[in-house]
Specification:
mainly beta, about 300 residues, 4 helices, nine-stranded antiparallel beta sheet, 17 strands, single chain
Length: about 300
């Protein structure tokens, strides 16, 4: 059974300096061979052309032009690959650091626990590290989401980062692939709470329509709405570029001053929630009868 209130692991503890098997480093990752090269892929958050920062206010966000401050920005990425000019993918083998990266999965954490992000943590993780076969690469591909085979495991025995409480949903529904939240200025927040009973706009994206014997057991097959986004950046140089997550694009089609009555606050990925339409389309996901559109949230920017 999921333990939803377990404390977060100590994220900044030192890696052991000895005891690793011969041919591996302390994190349990083999050093690159002559046919491989180390790669670092950096991530950043933004509100349009302004850097994402907890405690800062941003104007003109959403279809109603709200003034907001971020409360959270964390997301899982998996199946990272560099692309050749013809689109051929070469997988990036992630460093197994024991905290942020496990198998083909990494947690990107762009909040620092300050300001409106006080429910977060000070430790951040804004760069994926791994190795890739030597070659000439011009693009990047990754999935926003947790692979199905890891999405419904028992978190009480799960390795980090799959044991981080803030990203848990339920054993049946799995993990929150994306946790992006904003709060509005005090006057706007009071007005919104009076009208809708909700304050701020949280976005939690994960799989829904997951069939199992109950909330404390995982499904045997893929959920009806997997809600994983495959992101392709055809022009990306890991040495020169950063992957940017634009909160303004995520929320740009959504009225942040209201929340549809008798629905969850913000967008919790539930089918038939009007407040999810703009968010899901911005992420390039099918939602209800609406076909997927090209995702607009992630883009490449020169460092």
């Amino acid at each position: 059974m999921r333990s939803l209130f377990r404390a977060l692991p100590l994220l900044l503890m030192s890696m052991p300096l000895s005891g690793a098997p011969i041919g591996q480093n302390a994190a349990g990752t083999s050093p690159p061979t002559s046919a491989e090269e180390i790669v670092h892929i950096s991530f950043a958050g933004s509100f349009g052309d302004k850097p994402f920062a907890c405690g800062q206010y941003y104007e003109g966000v959403g279809s109603n032009g709200a003034t907001v401050t971020p409360s959270d920005l964390r997301f899982f990425v998996s199946n990272v690959a560099l692309l050749a000019a013809d689109g051929t993918p070469t997988p990036v083998v992630l460093e197994q650091d024991g905290v942020w990266q496990y198998r083909s999965l990494a947690l990107i954490d762009l909040e620092d626990g300050t300001g409106g992000c006080r429910n977060g943590n000070a430790a951040m993780h804004a760069e994926i590290s791994g190795t890739v076969a030597r070659g000439n690469y011009t693009g990047l591909r990754f999935t926003l989401g947790v692979p199905f085979e890891l999405d419904h495991i028992d978190d009480s025995t799960a390795p980090s980062p799959l044991n981080m409480t803030a990203m848990l949903w339920s054993w049946q529904n799995g993990y929150k692939f994306l946790r992006a939240e904003v709060s509005t200025r005090a006057r706007q927040a009071r007005s919104m709470a009076k009208a809708t009973g909700a304050v701020g706009f949280p976005v939690h994206v994960g799989s829904t329509g997951c069939a199992s014997t109950g909330p404390n057991s995982g499904p045997d097959h893929e959920c009806k709405y997997p809600n994983r986004t495959v992101v392709t950046l055809p022009a990306f140089d890991a040495m020169k570029d950063t992957v940017v997550f634009d909160m303004s694009k995520l929320l740009g089609r959504t009225d942040l001053s209201r929340n549809t009555q008798q629905t969850a606050p913000g967008c919790m990925s539930f089918p038939s929630d009007p407040d999810c339409i703009g968010v899901m389309q911005a992420l390039g996901l099918v939602y209800g009868d609406l076909p997927a559109k090209p995702q607009v949230v992630f883009y490449a920017r020169e460092k």
